[in-house]
Amino acid sequence: MSHSSEPRPMTARRSGPLRGTAHIPGDKSISHRALILGALSVGETRITGLLEGEDVLDTAKAMEAFGAQVTRLGDGEWSVYGVGVGGFSEPESVIDCGNSGTGVRLIMGAMATTPITATFTGDASLSRRPMARVTDPLELFGAQITAREGGRLPITIQGAADPLPVRYRTPVASAQIKSAILLAGLNVPGETVVIEPEPTRDHSERMLAGFGADIRAETTEEGHVITLQGRPELRAQPVAVPRDPSSAAFPVAAALIVPGSEIRVPGVSRNPTRDGLYVTLLEMGADIVFENPREEGGEPVADLLVRHGALKGVVVPAERAASMIDEFPILSVIAAFAEGTTVMNGVAELRVKESDRIDAMARGLEANGVKIEETKDSMTVHGMGRVPGGGRAVTHLDHRIAMSFLVLGLASEAPVSIDDGAPIATSFPDFLPLMQGLGGDLG
Ligand code: S3P
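Structure tokens predicted for 3-phosphoshikimate 1-carboxyvinyltransferase (443 residues):
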């Protein structure tokens, strides 16, 4: 996968109006979960619209290593014959999750309450990221865990033979921590409870209910409380993966900042736990129309019609951060083309993503003539309605940093280059041809 590929420098240049229809790939979060829940179910789960990015392909390989039968039937169409809750077998070799925090954290959860041992590794970016946030609660179930210094990968987990149910308050709002605990809770007698400070993306809850688990969520004075009844028999389900709103954000952003643009982006998920960027863009005055709202694969979706227009700076409240956590890099690019200041609050988690995204965006935007300030948990971009460009950004094995700076270059006065676009394949393998098809000058 990308872990072994050579760096691929890329450049984006000022482009004419973007026009056409952008068919976005399947949602990354839902794709990982479809494979994992399929592997934990009895019978055949047929998946359509699966994201065939490197992150998800690594999860598919991992599910095979734990004993599921995973077959690619066609474009985005996959079949998973699962082994049932508690049915994972011990993998013969190390599980390499590549660049994917979601993959490794969810799979560690899924195996931690089965009496088998597995070792997990990943690329240089993943090996720098904190894992104790997941391994700490997994130890409470009774799993025995050995990690490298600082709780980092590689990590070996000896799954609990007699797991105990856990009630756990997550220290940060993170769907990956929540999901790891819920997946571990599947093979435990009794109720597993997760309390999160703010609601995070709820795909695990929706999909677990769809596969037949008894799971409920409520907001109490303690926080957002999710309760799962252990040892369900998960029944294989067809899963139609909706298109990824986080990937859609890149062509949407490009259309908003390149003068004269008008694009359509059909079938994008509008799950309220993922919708923060779109809420923010409307506040900035963006011309986005949500057409044909409907339900697909258990998720609300709509067709987006996006046109270029004037934008103004806004303050993004900290409570909204969880619902747009992956969209701050591209929002900081859009904000540079707005008139006035955009403040993004409550974004400390950006420092532990595929890269330190606050630092990566600040350095790259500065190199392209944009004024940006950072604190440990905020970013402020001073929009001038135009961006000089002409700089080079360092992407630190981070797909969203790479795509953000390429979008920047489509509307800045001088070209913008990046040191490495190879990681784009982790989440959006057809990003370049898709953007070129809309009229973008990049490659
Ligand atoms: C994800 C959760 C988020 C997000 C990531 C996908 C998921 O991570 O940034 O891209 O699928 O659960 P955190 O849980 O670390 O916030």
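DSSP finds twelve helices and 24 strands in the chain.
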